[in-house]
């Protein structure tokens, strides 16, 4: 270290370096050091000069675009750019996760991914926006999936399931799998035989009254409750989805019943 300097890690940097604390600045709660430059907003550039922060707004050059391009101000960029007419997406962000209820139209560059809320990932491909919910891994044995407000996937909390349960969800006595492989799962309970109004399908007891074509069924399991399709025609085009703790119809996988 040089005289009058100390070791510090600048904001956004990996390694420490020798800096002079004298004349440092504070900007948005971050300490900046003498002669340090950084980008403020999308089009603002700032510098620390003897304890004072000075910012300047960048000026954009005049640009003329080719015939198959158009001048677009992409989200997060300072100046508009000439972009191919199929090289960006127009996306209207909903007000659900914004500070106000108003919607905001954004222009997103091709190939960019972003998050819209805690459980929605979007991507710009071929000038089209595709959004999906990321799948959540199942909680390991001996834990319970607990929903957390503002969080996409549930927290896996250690819990002692009911002795009948190999795994459980929603509550410790609501089984997803039975400890005894000879027992059947009926609405979260492990039973020796299916009750009145249910019929056996493999290791499950399903609600009677709907004629389903074997060997493929369309069954959604949410917190142990089995939800059947509205008609056999729906089931014929469907798959079997076992989902842990949450109903995610977009994430099915094939499953054949004996």
TrEMBL record:
Matching SMART domains: VWC
InterPro entries referenced in this protein's UniProt entry, alphabetically: FRAS1_ECM (IPR051561), Growth_fac_rcpt_cys_sf (IPR009030), VWF_dom (IPR001007)
SUPFAM superfamilies: FnI-like domain, Growth factor receptor domain
Source organism, top-level taxon: Eukaryota
Database matches in Pfam families: VWC
Chain ranges of the VWFC domain: 23-83, 87-157
Record-given protein name: FRAS1 protein
Organism phylogeny: Eukaryota, Metazoa, Chordata, Craniata, Vertebrata
Gene transcribed to yield this protein: FRAS1
